[in-house]
Amino acid sequence: MDWQSGMNEAIKYIEDNLDKSIDYEITARFICCSVGEFQRIFSILTGVSLSEYIRRRRLTLAACDLQNSNEKVIDIAFKYGYDSHASFTRAFRKLHNTSPSLARKEGVILRTYPRISFNFMVQGIKEIDYKIEEKDSTTFIGINKKMSTKNKEHFHSIWLFWREFEETRMYDILRKYSDEELVYAVSTYCNEPSSFNYMASVKYNGSPINDNLELLTVKPQTYAVFNVPKQDEANIGCFIERIYNEWLPSTKYKLTGDAEIECCKEDGTVILMPISNHIEP
């Protein structure tokens, strides 16, 4: 199954189970990745978190049920995963600007969030250069921060993180533990919904640690390596979106869910995406 088909199959599973329990593990399997990775990719591609998309779609269908059936409000609330009349009413009012009971009246304006579908446009007008490299196991040392994937806000949070990194002269501390001058950003997935770990780091040389820092060992891995074009340096997030939207659908490689790495060099930024070391026929 290719990337585009996998994403659309994940959406089909979600849509088929909006009135049931949705297993995020199943959604992630459609594109052969971890739950955390799927949530991050979904947020990057759509601008909304996976949980928020599901909430909006359930409340859209709930409004249809209210207008087209005689079901009790509490039964519709239970149907779409709310455990009380009050919690359903709060969520419904937040989305539709009216109460569930008033939604049944003629002429009431309600809000619809349509089903998402993925139809990637791979145009080739702006090429994406890459190379495939094998990397040995590497240990990084640095400071880690948990980032949210909700509504692309993590791009701004990452920018604030690096600004603080510079203002506190954290590099001077990290430099003591590395034999090179390069700085790395390492993203890893965690078990908490809609979040991932983001680490500003250097390659660790094994020196005794006298500071409040974390170690992270990345296993040997095959990477797709991208040099960020100069015009995209100011907004790397847009280039990462192109990798997901254009490069992945056009190559049949699959992400493994392991650590993603950005390396900040004097001549630009390099992005390393962990991929499976085979291409499907």
Describe this structure in words.
- The structure is a single chain.
- This protein has helices at 3-16, 24-29, 35-46, 50-68, 73-79, 85-96, 153-167, 170-174, 236-251, and strands at residues 131-135, 138-148, 183-189, 195-203, 214-218, 221-227, 260-265, 268-274.
- It is of the alpha+beta class and 281 residues long.
- Strand 7 and strand 8 form a beta hairpin.
- The protein is elongated, with a radius of gyration of 22 Å.
Order of helices and strands: HHHHHHEEHHEEEEHEE
What proportion of the residues is helical, as a percent range?
Answer: 25-40%
User: How many separate helices?
Assistant: 9
Write down the Rg: 22 Å
Number of strands: 8
* Uncertain segments: none
Strand portion: 15-25%
Mean pLDDT: 87
Structural class: alpha+beta
Assembly state here?
Answer: single chain
- Main beta-sheet annotation: 8 strands, antiparallel
Task: Tag the structure with descriptive keywords.
281 residues, alpha+beta, eight-stranded antiparallel beta sheet, 9 helices, 8 strands, 20% strand
List the helices and strands and how they pair.
Layout: H1 3-16, H2 24-29, H3 35-46, H4 50-68, H5 73-79, H6 85-96, E1 131-135, E2 138-148, H7 153-167, H8 170-174, E3 183-189, E4 195-203, E5 214-218, E6 221-227, H9 236-251, E7 260-265, E8 268-274
Antiparallel strand pairs: 1-6, 2-4, 2-5, 3-4, 3-7, 6-8, 7-8
Structure summarized in a few sentences:
This protein has 281 residues and is an alpha+beta fold. It contains nine helices and eight strands.
